[in-house]
Design a protein that fits this description.
Layout (H helix, E strand, L loop, with lengths): L6 E5 L6 E9 L3 H6 L5 H6 L4 E7 L6 E8 L10 E8 L1 H13 L3 E3 L4 H8 L5 H12 L3 H11 L2 H25 L6 H31 L4 E5 L6 H9 L17 E7 L2 E7 L9 H16 L2 E7 L19 E6 L9 H8 L6 E3 L7 H17 L7 H23 L3 H19 L5 H8 L7
Parallel strand pairs: 1-6, 7-9, 7-10, 10-11, 11-12
Antiparallel strand pairs: 1-2, 2-5, 3-4, 4-5, 8-9
Length: about 450
Amino acid sequence: MLTDNSIILALSSASGSCDRGIIRFSGKGCIELVAQICEDKDKIISAKGFTCNAAKLIALEVPVFASIYLMRSPASYTREDMIELHIVGAPYILTKMISYFIGTQHCRIAEPGEFTKRAFFNGRLDLLQAESVTRLIAAKSDREYRKALDALTGRVTNMITPIREKLFIMARNLTVDLDFDEEIENEHIEAIQLELQSIKTDLSSVSKASEYEQSIGDDYNVILVGPVNAGKSTIFNQFSEESVSIVSNIKGTTRDIIKREIHLGSHSFTLLDCPGWGEAVDELDALAQSQSSISIETADMVICVLDGTVEFAYQKPLKPPQWQGRGILVVNKCDMPIILNVQEAAEYFQWDQNEVVYISGKENITELRNKVNQKWEEFEKSAIGSILNARQQFELLNAIQALDLSLDAIHSGIGIDAIEFEVRRALYSLSRVTGDEVDENILISIFSSFCIGK
C-alpha cells in the first residue's frame, strides 16, 4: 500500500535546452497548488477530466506562458490527480520554477520511478507492466518498442494470470482437503495430478517462449550450412552483393566463419557462412567445422544448402540436426538437371516441404530472400511478444520446480500436506511476477532503475 500521499514533482523532459520543458506533478492537491500561480486560477481549478489549458504563470519575476495538461483521479497514470506544466525549455526557467514549488513546502522532488511506483500501488499497473516502462523508454528499435509495449498493455500478464488463478483454486481446495481428516480417494489424487501436470505444461510453455524470444533479440544471426561445394559461399556473396566469400571447387575452401551485416526489407541480420560438413581435408578444416557447430546451434535461422545435382546420400550430415522451426532447405544449382531426392532430404531434416526453396545461386536468389523475410514474420508472430526479464524468469522457474516437487509428492504418496505446501510455493512465485506478492527490497531494486520523472 502507498503510505506517502505527498505531492511529488519532477522534470519529465530531457535535461538541457529544448523547445519544451515539462514539469510533472502527482498527488492530492497538486491541481490547486499549480493553479495558485496561474493568472486565471479559477479556470484551472474548475477544469474537468483530461484537459489542456493555456495559462500565464505569475510565480517568477517575469510572466511565463504555459500549456497546462490536467488529469483528474482516477483517470490518470498514477490514479491520483496529475498536472503537467509545459513551458519553454530553458534550463534557468525550469530550475527556478521547480525551486519555487519546492520552496512552498507543499511538495517534494519525486524519487526515481515514483510516478510508476504510485501507478503500481494504486492498481493502474501490475509489476510486469511497471517493469516494462523502463524497457519502453530504453527501446532502440521498432522491435524493442513493440515488445515493451506488448508487456505494458498486459499481454504477458494475460498469459500468467489464468495460470495463477488455477493455482489459487487448487491451493484453496487442498486446504479444504486437509481440514477433513479422512482418507483421500485415489480418484481425487489422480485428478489433482492431472491438473498439476496441465498447469506445469502451461507454465513451461510461457518459460520456453520467453527463452526463445530472449535468444532472438534484435541481433539476428542467419547461418548458411550444408555439405562442401553445395554453393553456400556463392549464395553468401549474392546476399552481400559483393565477393566477400571465396568461391572454389576445392573442398575446405571456407576455413573460418565469415560474417556480413545484411539489410533485407524491414529486417536486418548478421549472415554467417560456415565451413561445409563432410570429411575434413586437414586438421585446420576439422577445427573450423567444430567451431561452426557452435554457431549453428545458437543461430536464429539456419539455411541448409544442398546441391541439386548430387544424390542426398553423399550430402547428408552424420546425424539429423535439431533445427525444426528455424530452418529453410535450399536446393541449389537448379539451372542444371536435378537428381537430389528432395522428399528424402526434407524427411531426414524433419522439415515440411513448404520450407524448401529452389534456386540457382549463381543467377538469382529472389525466392530465398522472400522466404527469409517470411520466416522472420512467422517468428515475430509466434513469439511471446515481450520477454520476461531475469527476475521474472527466475520466479517462473521456481514455480515450475515447486510443481515438479508437488508431483513427486503424489508419486511418493507422502500426503496432501506436502502437495499443498509446494502448490502454495508455486503460487507465491507467480504472485511475485505479477506483484500480488512482493517485498520492499524487490520494489526498491526495480523502481530505483527508473529516471526521476517516470
